[in-house]
Amino acid sequence: MHHWHLDYESRSLADLTVVGGWHYARHPSTEILCAAIRRNNEPVLVWSPIEGFGGEGAGQLLREMLADDGPVYAHNATGFEVPMTEHVLTRMGFPAIDRKRWRCTATMARRANIPPSLEKAAEALRLTNQKDKGGSALIKLFSIPRKGTTEFNDPREHPEQFRQFLEYCRQDVMTECDVAEALKHFELKGWLLDIFHEDISINGRGMPVNLDALRKAQALIEAEKGPAFAEFLRLTGLNPTQNAKLRVWFAENGLPLDNLQADTLEALQADPSTATGRAIELLQKLGFAAVKKVDTMIECAGPDDNFIRGSLQFYGAQATARWSGRLHQPQNFKRPEFAETEQAYEHICAGWTKGMLETWYDRPIYSIIASCIRHFIHDSQGPMLSADYSAIEARVIAWLAGEEWRLEVFRTHGKIYEASACQMFGLTMEQVTKAIRQKSKVAELALGYQGGVGALEKMGALDMGLTKEELPGLVKAWRAANPAITALWRACDHAARCAVEQPGIWFDARRVKIGVFAAAGAPYLFIKLPSGRCLSYRDPRIEWVRIPKPKDETPEEETERMAQGAADGKPGHRQQVTHFGPGSTAGGARSAVWGRATLYGGKIVENITQAVAFDLMANGTLVAARKGYRIYSLIHDEAMAAWDDRETQSIEDFQRCLESAPAWAEGLPLGTSGEVVPYYRK
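Structure (tokenized):
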């Protein structure tokens, strides 16, 4: 059996960065300019349909690849090479290939917890073959229409540059091959390969949207946007996108701002009767993220149907493998601001005007549309099946830790907030008031992963009516009520430290094992999950890490913080396991830059809990797919599917599929809630 590697270069009037690979490939203007193909360890051949650049033997090798049954590797296969092969190459008369042959080196990079882009992955792995950074100019020359036109540069008029373009494609395959070889330890196999292939099917199937309703919403938005833009320009003399100049304008008008991000503007609660307050109100309106999704959904819907394809990223959360969102990102839809969203959506579908909608719902049109955003995910063929795992992380962490009272709650009535309140405050279920349940709820949501007072505040405890003085006691009460979970934090932290200090040995931490072993040219800290899958952390070390200063820190808290590490000449620091990864710098601040990230007991427990939740959802998704359910999307812990056969399919059966627990999860009580929905509701 041969192993193949493939890469395409293409051109299109569609913007790949905006619409995604599936829409791009289905667009009638999209053409393949060249394909680089490698069989096993043979030389890379480059084929092009452009006359004079065909490549000797490359076309025959491409046909041999399509006719073979060996695996085909590509970097970001699901998002580009799969749809390009299925739609563009077949339009050119080439045969399709079985989706089960696909492999993805970008997914292997995500599994190895290194940057997933080809360029950054090659840099992180210190490969001999690096990505050619000069390719962006060639892409601009050949893949994008000339500015202000729909015409492309003809490769035959730029033969030397096009030969460089072919070489750029060839080099990408060489780099991709080296990435695959370096990351062979992280190859997808078994059920993990099966769910990768099912992910291709889900992305290729897409998510249905109501384009007619979206266009009506877009017209309402555009009618509002014009006057708002004109007023903003009159008020500030600036375009809403001129962030640096706008910050100067705000500062000159008595309101210095660190940034103009949505959360910052929302927290200001500015007075709209002032110039700065009105400017902020207009800026929020013009940059309303939830409303922008309307434009995105229209742009990303297929050119010949009402489906958005490619909106899921497999292994998107690299530390755990959970899916993340792409394109319109339903995973971060805005929460509704009022209850009657389904009625409002029906009114938008019916063509109500801005005045009618604002009068009926007594709120701005932007707020109305943003609150209805979920419902535009709507299958014109009929109702959909929607099933959501119930408290999946709370169930998994209880099972991992062996917190028996919590497991018993999930085996019986399932009221974890009330039961937790009883455990924390020594009450009966009948004594749990609404206020006490609220305390328990915020504690449950904030404290499971070693969070403290800061985590409670971040979860909104103070907004819920709790006082700052209550929070330390709430932390202590929750931890006292959950001794097995707190013990799991310590066990995971201890095992990780031991693993770093004694590489080559597995250390037990309840249901997981932690060890440091060599892979991909570096030491890796591996956490072996009950499913057998491993979480991966590259280049682990034990380092002194500064303890972040909490907001509103008291003098007593500062003294306690600075006492840590003082004996070693490192006041305000503690020793922690760190690794190469995204997210946290040594100082604890969030960052998108890859570097040293911290790993401690609570973080490990969070990762393994969410990873096990992924393993369970992957298993349930495969069970459902094998029974014939056509899954549209996986959003957080919810699965949506078409309702194809009313005789053999039902919401109850769909739920049973998702609740199917593999043998390794014995004793883990799974549950789902489900309903037949006319459109997306959650």
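The first strand starts at residue 4 and ends at 11. The chain has 26 helices and 19 strands.
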